[in-house]
Design goal:
single chain, globular, 209 residues, alpha+beta, Glutaredoxin, five-stranded mixed β-sheet
Length: 209
Amino acid sequence: MFKQWFPGLILALLFTTQVSAQQAFKEGVDYRRVDPVVKTTNPEKIVVTELFWYGCPHCFRFEPYVEKWVKTMPEGVIFEQVPSTLNPRWIEHARTFYALKMMGAPSQTHKAFFDAIHIKRQRLTSIDAIGKFIEAQGLDQSKFREQYNSFPVDTQIRKNNQKEKRYGHSGVPTVIVNGKYMTSGGMAGSFDRLLNIIDFLVASELKSR
C-alpha cells in the first residue's frame, strides 16, 4: 500500500511547494515587470543582470551572495554585472569597470576594488586615485587611462544610461531578469530572499521557452 500512495504524496508535495512559491512572491511587491521589455545582451539565454555601484555598501555585502549563486545557475542562464550610472558621481566607477574589462584585467581586480573602498577605506573617487590603485594591482596605469577615456567606454556608458532609464529603478543593487522583471534587496527584504525571487523568475522564464 505504501508503494501505491507514495508517488502521489511526492507529487502533492511538489505541487504544494510550487503554489507556496507563487504565493510568496507577488508582482508589484517582490518584483515588477519592465514595460516595455528591454533587449538583453544574449537573446538565446536567460540573462540575469545585476546593476551595482562600487561605492554602494549594499552592493558590497551582496557580492558574496552573487558569487555563491552564480555557481548554482541552471543551464541556459547567464549572469552579468553592469555598473550603474544612475547617479553622475558613479560614472568614474563605471568607466573603471569597463576600462578594466577592455584591458583583460584579472577577475580578482573586481573584488580588490570593492575591498579597497569598503574594507581599506580608500577614497577612489578620482582618476588619479583610481590610477594609483590600478598600478598597485600590477596593471599598466597609462593603458588604464587610455581605456578609461576611450570611445568604446563612452559608448558603453551611453548604453547604460539608456537602459537604466527604461528599467526605471531608483537604486542599487537592482537585479533585472531577462529584461522583463526587476527586483532588489529593498523589495525582497533580505539578500537570501532576493536570490529566491531571482530563482523564481528565472524558472518562470525557462518554463516559458
